[in-house]
Each structure stands twice: as C-alpha cells, then as structure tokens.
Design brief:
By secondary structure, this protein is an alpha/beta fold. Helix 2 packs parallel to helix 10 and helix 5 packs parallel to helix 6. The chain has 11 helices and 12 strands. Helix 4 links the parallel strand 3 and strand 4. Helix content is about 50%, strand content about 15%. Bound molecules: beta-D-glucopyranose. The site of beta-D-glucopyranose (BGC) has 14 residues, from helix 8. The site of beta-D-glucopyranose has 14 residues, from helix 8.
C-alpha cells in the first residue's frame, strides 16, 4: 500500500469518527431538548378543601377566596375555588356533589336554600366529609358550623339607616338577589321589622335580581317608571345597590332617590363618593374566607369550634369612606 493510500485511510477513519461523535452529540441534544425540567419542589399539603361559591367571578366572592387562600397558605391546605360561572342553584349543588365525590377533606359553601341545600349537606356530612357554611347558613342542616354575617341583623341595620337618613319618610322599593336564598330572605325580614313601626315608611314593591347587576338595573328602571312615588331603594346583595345606582345616576339624579345597599365593592364605594348611594352594609368577606379554613382545620383535628360565628356588620356612609376616596373627592370638586 502506498504512503498516499495509508494517509487517505487514516484521514477517512478520523473523518468517520468525528462525524459519528457529532451525530451522537447533536442527536442527544435534539432528543432531550424539549423534556421539561422539573424545578418546582413538590408541595405537600395536610388537607384538601373546596370553597364552593354562588358565582365564581363575583368580586365579593373573590374576596372570600383571597381570605381562604391566605389561610390555606398559612396552614398547609390545598384550597380549590369552585362554583357556577353565573349564579345558578343547580350548578352550585352539582359542584358540591362533585367535590364530595372526589373525597376532599372538607367543603366550605353557602347554605342557600333549605329545600335544596339541607338534604345535600346532610348527605355529604353523613359520608364523612365535614361542611362549614359561609356567608349564608343552612341552619337546619347538619353542617358543622357557620361563619358569616348575621343576615337578619344586617337587614335590620339597613332599615334603621334608612329611617335615620330619610327622617322616617320614604316610599321604598326593595331589590333582592333572590326570593329563595336564606340570607336574602333574612335581610328583607330584618329590614321590614326595623321599619314596621314607622308610619311614614311604606314598602311599595319587592322584586328579585337573580344576583345580576343588569337585572337589578332593569328592575330599578321599571319601578321608577311604574311607581313615581318611590323615593328610596334597598338593595340586599352586592350587585343590587350598584345596579340601582347606575339607573339613578343615569336617568334620575344622584341623591334624588335614596339608596341603601350591601357591601363595599369598588363600584359601591365610588357611588357613595358621588352621592348616589347614601349607605351600605359592610360585610367582611375576606375574614369569612380566612376563618372558615381555620375552623375546618380545627374541626378535623378535633379542637373546639363555635357552631355560629358572626363576622362584623356595620353601616358605612360617605363620612366613613377610606381617606384615599375622600382625597379623590376633593380633586374632582
Ligand atoms: C352576599 C353574597 C352574594 C353577593 C352577590 C353579597 O351581599 O353576601 O351571598 O353572592 O352579595 O353579589
């Protein structure tokens, strides 16, 4: 073999080896490049709870969720937030059933109506899953505890605020979230009892908004058309006062019709600042969520738990607005 052929062989062999190494190197890179790299530490939870709410994207319920998630983080709980996209009793009940079927350690939910919620809650509890009612109690069920507003008292407060602010002279229309929900019924009853001794206060109409701001606005508009004597409104759930205020703001005049509503969502505060809503009943949704999770843990661990925990309720008017709102008021004047 000539020297030239030996050199050619050696060159060929080296070239072959180099190509093989490239092929192996890049082949490996291609095969592994899309594989996910597990960097997240596996989180460990002691319990798995579900918070089932009336309406997922309702700002009020998002506050309950925030409180519950904060407690879940503090106490090592995996918390799921579930419920209908828009208030719907059947979907609400189904979500509770599904949570129970997936064998969670505890369910936090409203006890909206006795007829539908009580038998379901009782079945879930009998299957060994503890239930705590939040915001709305199903007092006749076997739920372990309730945390939330004293709904009768909150309605009573709204009635007293209306008497005070209208000097006992008003033709009132009530817009309530639902005729069938326990808390809405109690808020109406508390209000009626507060005003019943007042000769100058007349309840002209009571209608339902189905927990919808648009429907509350439609109903308010209709009432103003049908009953020109109405000069006050009482809205019994977070979106009712806002819906009524939208109509008064647009078609009447802020302040011309008295409004007492519920809750302190950003829009409600804005309408109080503008003088469209005169008073609102303050609830503590964040605290409800936080304490409900803590109560559930205590229950599971066999620690004592109060069966009924009422969170704070009070009336807020323009003078009680957070300072940041009042500054904005001066700017816009
Ligand atoms: C009630 C909630 C309700 C919400 C509706 C609140 O005042 O406490 O139960 O889901 O209003 O927007």
């Amino acid at each position: 073999m000539s020297r030239l052929s030996v050199l050619a062989y050696i060159f060929g062999a080296v070239f072959f080896l180099v190509s093989c190494s490239f092929a192996v190197f890049y082949g490996y890179k291609v095969l592994t490049h899309d594989l996910p790299v597990e960097k997240k530490p596996v989180e460990k939870y002691d319990y798995h709870f579900v918070l089932v709410t009336e309406e997922l994207d309702n700002e009020y319920w998002r506050l309950v969720e925030q409180g519950a998630k904060a407690a879940a983080k503090d106490y090592g709980v995996m918390l799921e937030y579930a419920g209908p996209k828009q208030a719907n009793i059947d979907d609400h009940l189904k979500t509770i059933e599904m949570s129970a079927a997936s064998k969670v350690d505890g369910i936090l939910t409203q006890g909206l109506s006795d007829e539908q919620f009580t038998p379901l809650i009782d079945r879930v509890v009998a299957s060994g899953i503890p239930v705590i009612t939040v915001d709305t109690d199903a007092a006749n069920s076997k739920r372990m505890a309730y945390i939330g507003t004293d709904n009768y008292y909150s309605g009573f407060l709204a009635g007293k605020a209306l008497i005070q602010d209208t000097k006992g002279q008003a033709n009132v229309a009530i817009i309530t979230g639902s005729f069938y929900a326990n808390h809405q019924q109690q808020r109406v009853k508390g209000f009626q009892d507060a005003v019943k001794g007042e000769k100058g206060i007349h309840i002209i109409d009571i209608v339902e908004s189905e927990i919808s701001r648009v429907r509350a606005a439609e109903k308010a508009y209709q009432i103003i058309k049908d009953h020109p004597e109405v000069n006050a409104f009482y809205g019994t759930s977070a979106l009712d006062g806002i819906g009524i205020a939208q109509v008064v703001d647009r078609f009447v005049k802020p302040g011309k019709i008295y409004i007492v509503g519920f809750d302190t969502l950003p829009e409600s505060l804005e309408y109080i600042r503008k003088g469209t809503i005169q008073a609102t009943v303050v609830q503590e949704p964040y605290e409800m969520g936080y304490r409900a999770v803590k109560m559930m843990i205590n229950l599971i661990q066999g620690k004592p738990v109060e069966p009924i925990v009422h969170t704070n309720t009070r009336i807020m008017r323009i003078g009680d607005l957070p300072v940041s709102h009042l500054y904005r008021m001066e700017e816009s004047n």
